[in-house]
Amino acid sequence: MKLLRKAAGPDVFFSRCCASQNMRSLGGAIGLVDSMRIGPDNGFGWQDYRNEVMHFEGGGIITGPIRGNRLYFLHRRVWWNDPDPSYLRPVVKLNHAQLLASWVAVSGMFNLNSDWLPGLPPERHDILKRCLPSHHATARPVDYFDSVMPSIWLLTAPPRHVLGLYNWDSTSRAISYDAGKAGLDSSKTYHAFDFWSNTPLPDFRGSFAFDVPGVSCRVIAIRAAEEHPILVSTSRHVTQGVVDVSGEKWQRNQLSVISQVVAGDPYELRMAGLEKWKAVSASVSAADQAAGVTIAVSSREAGWLRVTIVSKDSRSVKWTVKCDPK
Hints:
The chain is of the alpha+beta class. The protein has three domains: 131 residues, TIM Barrel (Alpha-Beta Barrel); 86 residues, Golgi alpha-mannosidase II (Immunoglobulin-like); 96 residues, Immunoglobulin-like (Sandwich). Helices cover 18% and strands 37% of the residues. It is built from eight helices and 19 strands. The protein has a six-stranded antiparallel sheet. A hairpin with a 2-residue loop joins strand 5 and strand 6. The protein is globular.
């Protein structure tokens, strides 16, 4: 490996696999590879994590998350952790496909897929679409010391946070945790939006509790409430603004943001904090208007506003929503 690294030079990306996965053998590759398979081969079947943890057997969807949860601290410090591919093919149950792809996307680990992409049904292709590209924020399993198989990941990209909640059991259960222990501000009220169900959730303060169906996940954007409307979620990516939103500013009763919009993909903005405000207009910059970009209010819910942007080209869109006090 030293010879290969030296001969290839620093610009070649080395992804290592087929080394026995324990710290003794992993240690010998530190500094020589850019990514490392951190577990045995996975597969597209389901296997109870208790069996695999006890017997160290590979071959299921759970394989990557077991090792990725355990060795998360190596990721992007030593190399990119490679948990093996996500599987979206129709033989995999939809909730299993969402669970694995979402875990990879929120944890930010090496994102691979080995499906025949042209043959995927639209709903499966959309899962992959919503989990790429990888983010470069900080993510960690907050209940790392509380469970053999952590079920709560927190992605932090202030002022945005994303909760990845994963139920590895076959029956539905409530996943709850103290907000302060999770790394949030216990004194603040948080707005929440569930990505896969496309649904606003009740605000929470001090702690959170969400029901998660068996062997399924919920990916929830959360953001501390302010005295004015704020952008909590977007539809482009499961991290809901982390990879596509910048330059957010509230000034003179206007929320102004820059979003990276994908060509032909309706881009929905989910704004919260409108209990005391009324949206009066939504607009894009003159340059975006000239390029054919459109923006319109798509729906209003209690305390929430949805706005949809459509562009025929992939581009940075500067948009503004003006609000008046009620």
